[in-house]
Amino acid sequence: MKRTLIVGAGQACATILTEILNAKHSPYEDDKISAEYDPVCIVDDNRRFIGREINGIRVVGMTYEIPSIVAKYKIEQIIFAIPSCEDEERKRILGICSASNVPVKIIPFIGNLIFDESRTKLVHQIRDIRIEDLLGREPIRFDNSEICSFIKGKKCMVTGGGGSIGSELVRQIAKYSPEQILIIDIYENTAYEVQQELLMEYGSDLNVETLIASVRDYDRMNAIFDEYKPDIVFHAAAHKHVPLMEKSPMEAIKNNVIGTFNVATLAQFHNVKKFVMISTDKAVNPTNAMGASKRCCEMIIQYLSQQRDGVTEFVTTRFGNVLGSHGSVIPLFKRQIEQGRAVTVTHPDIIRYFMTIPEAVSLVLEAAAIANGGEIFVLDMGKPVRIVTLAENLIRMYGKVPYVDVNIEFVGLRPGEKIKEELLMNEEGLQKTSNDLIFIGRQIEIESEKFINQLRDLRDAANKNDVDLAIKALHSIVPTFMTPEEFNEKPLVTV
């Protein structure tokens, strides 16, 4: 049993205390989890509650006093028990809790609580605090009815279907009764894992085909389109690691640019109804080969949209960093803390926009459902977050003190890395959609003949495996491509 402080003196607190106290006298195995808590005291920001008792446990102060209360009462863990708390207030209180240097557990948002045969009690839904809880907002939800009518009965191809975004796309598409899901990936292990996950979840009720193929291979992809005839293509296959692509820019061009051109033109030739390209905020004023290659991909999609050949509607979705994805900073920080190492942050001022993988995928599906062709859809991701703040909060979530128990080392910006990210280029502007959280960037006109010639030069440079020539070709086709030094000299956004 751990000495426990409960934050919030409302109904959730009363329910939890009742379940904990009843569990102490229960013979059932299921109640052992409740007996792990030893409630010592409560805090609440309603002054009228201070001094009162709930099931024999006293309300001893307000949330700003949490650090001193933790010390005074020798608290070993905190339960945040305000499931209906507003976003900003939730962020503020969780920040105080995480600064108290004891583990923090949390009750999910009230809309996310589940009571079924396996979870009949509120105490069973208490979970460890997650890093996304500190971002200050509830995960964004989208219009499922629009997505359902868009996906239902369609053949959906997902390139990069074994990756972080691709696999979540596959999971969410599966919920909307597609005629078929086609998983395309060059990496067999993750593609196999997603395939098996869907088989266990849906069995024979879901038509899933998993094919190992590279988007670089035009003939292979052509054969796949010819055989399976997809209605919708979600193009998530890409090289995304900035430092690795700085060393091998020709691979970013081959996989991202040429791969996108292959799949997109084949979609047009085979009369795919809608083609959705997954982009990144690093395509905006890019300072690295990966970002420049993704900007070039956006230009390809806009070029094809302007041609108005065939029936295919082309759309781009752009978002920021995804929590928990392959290469995300959060898994790296967790490994460093768990191994007793210092947490490495590249720069004390570095900031990023963050969203969860389900949010990112919901954006893709919602945008695809409302797209008419040619748009670049951008999600309003709120305020950017300082990476060092994420690192400090994550260390506190492990019950440790930043810079004391776990050091934070600033190791310098990586090759091609920005201090801040942007979501929209200045010349694109913003246009509202039916969803208050999704905006459209103005389409940029592409000079067709010039663009195709530049694209051909870019391909040839990559195929020669000449790093300098590849970078030069990228600068030529993407005029906003600049050096990190040029970009980072700009004034920083205050967070």
How would you describe this protein?
The relative contact order is 0.10. With 495 residues, this protein is an alpha/beta fold. It is built from 16 helices and 22 strands. The strands form five sheets. A nine-stranded mixed sheet has the order 10-9-8-11-12-13-18-22-21, with helices on both faces. A seven-stranded mixed sheet has the order 3-4-2-1-5-6-7. Helices cover 38% and strands 18% of the residues. Helix 1 links the parallel strand 1 and strand 2. The protein folds into two domains: 128 residues, 3-Layer(aba) Sandwich (Rossmann fold), CATH 3.40.50.720; 345 residues, NAD(P)-binding Rossmann-like Domain (Rossmann fold, 3-Layer(aba) Sandwich), CATH 3.40.50. About 2% of the residues have low confidence.
